[in-house]
Specification:
It is a single chain. By secondary structure, this protein is mainly α. The protein has 19 helices and 5 strands. Helices cover 46% and strands 6% of the residues. A 5-stranded parallel beta sheet has the order 3-2-1-4-5, sandwiched between helices.
Length: 459
């Protein structure tokens, strides 16, 4: 059994994961109290492998930004974290490895394995803080059980409250050891072609947040539903990778009294709620939260699924959403619901296929929020949209993109169609003149098919 090296008894390792920042970082505070700190990131094949190129590219850019903030000291290693973290801790003689707690099913198992490997060397994994305002598993109802519905959870969440942002340590004695971001463990960035990503890193995230606070928050309550406007904070990817903490945002929101501030708080609560659901029901990441709907008939993904994924369904707002996904690695939330409903209830393809497609392309791909969002649309999740609520892609487009600007931005074949007429090119004399595809299904018919099957399942 290898004991910590006496020459560096005051050294600890800070293992970065979904907390790629230096401010409001409780695990960093804990590590700094130990003395010297080695910053470490482990490229875990179990997470790297299933990730799409968009998430990989954004992660690499965020790590480079973090490395710059650390003065080039970030150590990047590749492999099984139980082996890598133990090896690095041995190498620098660290008695403790500090990390933010991970609430995901895989992350919890991985961290237990790392803790066990470190314990064999009489070292310790210290988990401090969480990527959420309130740690998953904390909020319980009056019976001591987890909430299954959002509204009562949100009330309990607000009553529970959350800590103030953690202070930045006065002086962190960072050290560097081993291979860094320019070493042999650093992978090349995937070629994203024409897909564009926003600037990565903590500084960029804070800049975007303050810009939104100043110019977007007051109108957020109604603007957030408009994909044709820049009405959202565009920070879901920064929250996913922990470039800033929701606690920081909530502290700033406390000083705002607008309806937009309250709506934004509610959206942060949804993020905590879905993480809490996954904590209590880890099976719901892949399986039906409400298993009674597992009996619905679904088609295997084929040509129709490919047309949906590539934005060639003939329904403009659906196609704009899927092309936005492939253009910028992000989709407006209202449009996410529209395209999800179309896949599940018009094309009759199971939600799990759509959830995987989203995770492949989204820069903010988050297991809890993504998969439970898909289950919401499919009618099988918590607070599920009733299965009989089928989004009409034409009326949704007209309501939330009334002048058609969103569609024209991402569907160039329809840029010649003026105003809201862009949502019904089949009613425009030259609607198909520039190669836009005709509708692959009849929405009214497929809606009836979906509802008939739902009636069968409900009995």
């Amino acid at each position: 059994m290898a004991a910590p090296a006496s020459s560096r008894e005051s050294t600890s390792v800070l293992w970065f994961r979904r907390d790629l920042r230096l401010h409001d970082h409780p695990a960093l505070l804990a590590a700094a109290r130990d003395g010297e700190v080695l910053p470490l990131f482990v490229l875990d094949p179990a997470l790297w492998g299933p990730s799409g190129d968009v998430r990989r590219a954004y992660l690499l850019r965020s790590l480079r930004a973090l490395d710059a903030d650390l003065g080039g000291r970030l150590v990047v290693e590749r492999g099984d974290p139980a082996e890598v973290v133990r090896r690095v801790a041995r190498r620098v003689g660290a008695g403790r490895v500090h990390a933010s707690a991970d609430a995901g099913p895989y992350g919890r198992r991985r961290d237990d394995d790392v803790a066990s490997a470190l314990a064999d060397d009489e070292r310790e994994l210290v988990r401090t803080g969480t990527p959420y305002a309130v740690g998953p598993g904390t909020i319980l109802n009056g019976s001591g059980k987890p909430f299954q519905v959002f509204t009562p959870f949100s009330r309990a969440w607000a009553e529970h409250g959350w800590p103030a942002p953690a202070q930045l340590p006065d002086d962190v004695r960072w050290i560097r050891d081993g291979e860094g971001v320019d070493g042999r463990h650093w992978p090349g960035e995937p070629d994203l072609g024409d897909l564009t990503l926003p600037e990565a890193g903590e500084e960029a995230a804070h800049d975007r947040w303050h810009e939104f606070l100043e110019h977007g928050l007051a109108d957020y309550g109604h603007e957030r539903e408009r994909p044709d406007h820049d009405g959202t904070s565009q920070l879901s990817h920064a929250l996913k990778w922990g470039e800033l903490h929701p606690r920081t945002l909530l502290a700033d929101l406390r000083r705002k009294r607008s309806d937009g501030a309250q709506t934004y708080r509610t959206e942060l609560c949804w993020r905590d709620f879905y993480a809490d659901v996954l904590w209590n029901r880890p099976d719901s990441a892949r399986e039906y939260y409400k298993p009674q709907l597992a009996g619905l008939r679904y088609d295997d993904p084929g040509e129709a699924f490919t047309a949906w994924a590539q934005g060639r369904t003939g329904y403009p707002v659906v196609d704009a959403g899927m092309r936005q996904l492939r253009s910028v690695g992000w989709v407006h939330n209202r449009v996410r619901m529209i395209v999800a409903s179309f896949l599940v209830k018009d094309l009759h393809v199971e939600w799990r296929h759509g959830a995987r497609e989203f995770l492949r392309w989204l820069r903010d791909g988050d297991l809890a929020s993504n998969n439970h969002g898909w289950q919401w649309v499919a009618g099988s999740g918590t607070d599920a949209s009733p299965f009989f609520r089928v989004f009409n892609p034409v009326t949704q487009g007209r309501k939330f993109d009334p002048q058609g600007d969103y569609v024209r931005r991402y569907v160039p074949e329809l840029r010649h169609v003026p105003g809201g007429a862009v949502h019904t090119p089949w009613e425009v004399e030259d609607g198909y003149e520039h190669g836009y595809p005709e509708r692959i299904v009849d929405h009214a018919h497929e809606r009836r098919v979906a509802l008939d099957d739902y009636a069968r399942v409900k009995g």
